[in-house]
Design a protein that fits this description.
Number of domains: 1
Strand content: 25-35%
Order of helices and strands: EEEEEEHHEEEEHHHHEEE
Number of strands: 13
Distance between the termini: 44 Å
Helix content: 10-25%
Shape: globular
CATH architecture: 4-Layer Sandwich
Radius of gyration: 17 Å
CATH topology: Penicillin V Acylase, Chain A
Number of helices: 6
């Protein structure tokens, strides 16, 4: 596969209901071509609710949206052998559609009620808040489907949740030994985003496509190639107190070399 046809990939790690202090902890890497302009953080909606997230400057959408009520929405694209259908709407609209609601449940209901079959190219989303966590799937020509997820650590990349994935298996193996307490989880998910480990040959054969095997660097959490790689990263903590805004840290570059900046001041303008 030529380097110019790479599909944008992302890594999402959602820790839900694992600690009392922060019932939702999220880590996200955004992988993309270096020549596609984007903002790592922006105010996506001013109020009711206020929404923060990255912004793709080509299509105008986002890969990760967080609102002031603690709703966090992450999206990954489903690769297509023929490439994305340019006649369809940008998948980047979907996280903002969900984050415009005051709860994860309401956001998922709005998406499944509003989105028509085949309106968007296929994608997957994780949608969570203090009270619930959902996996949402958009297929090529069917209506969106969703299902609630149990407490635990859930990892999503550019394959369906639960499908074989050496990258997901590696991340879960790193997280499995982490103590179930807030500081430990926060440190662990941050470390995962910076990891350059390429899974072993056995893990690669377990779930990687032929194209990915030819570019093994894309199997790492933090991706580096000549023309494509991890462009930005984000860390989110949703506090148990509904009156408190989520913690949001953003790295405007690969997290292995770029400092995370607290963008909390954006909640108040």
């Amino acid at each position: 596969m030529s380097t110019g046809t790479l599909t944008a990939m992302c890594l999402l790690v959602f820790s839900w209901q694992m600690t009392q202090e922060h019932p939702l902890i999220v880590a996200a890497n955004r992988d993309e071509r270096f020549d596609r302009p984007a903002e790592s953080i922006s105010v996506l909606r001013e109020c009711n609710p206020r929404v923060l997230g990255g912004r793709d400057q080509v299509a105008g959408g986002t890969w990760l949206a967080v609102n002031e009520h603690g709703v966090v929405v992450g999206l990954t694209n489903r690769p297509s052998p023929g490439g994305r259908d340019l006649t369809k709407r940008s998948r980047g609209e979907l996280p903002l559609m969900v984050a415009n609601q005051r709860s994860a449940a309401a956001g998922v209901a709005a998406l499944t009620r509003t989105v028509l079959p085949g309106q968007y190219n296929p994608a997957w989303l994780l949608v969570g808040d203090r009270e619930s966590l959902y996996y949402v799937e958009l297929t090529i020509d069917g209506p969106p489907s969703s299902r609630p997820l149990p407490p635990g650590i859930h990892v999503l990349e550019n394959v369906a949740l639960g499908e074989p994935s050496p990258k997901v298996d590696w991340v879960l193996s790193k997280m499995s030994a982490v103590e179930r307490e807030d500081p430990s989880l926060w440190t662990a998910v941050r470390s995962v985003l910076s990891d350059h480990t390429v899974p072993s040959f056995e893990m690669v054969n377990h779930g990687a496509t032929e194209e990915v095997v030819r570019r093994p660097a894309t199997l790492a959490s933090c991706v580096h190639t000549d023309d494509y790689g991890t462009r930005s990263a984000a860390l989110v903590r949703v506090p148990a107190d509904a009156l408190e805004k989520p913690d949001l840290l953003v790295a405007d570059g690969p997290p292995c070399t770029t400092s995370f900046i607290d963008v909390g001041p954006l909640w108040t303008g």
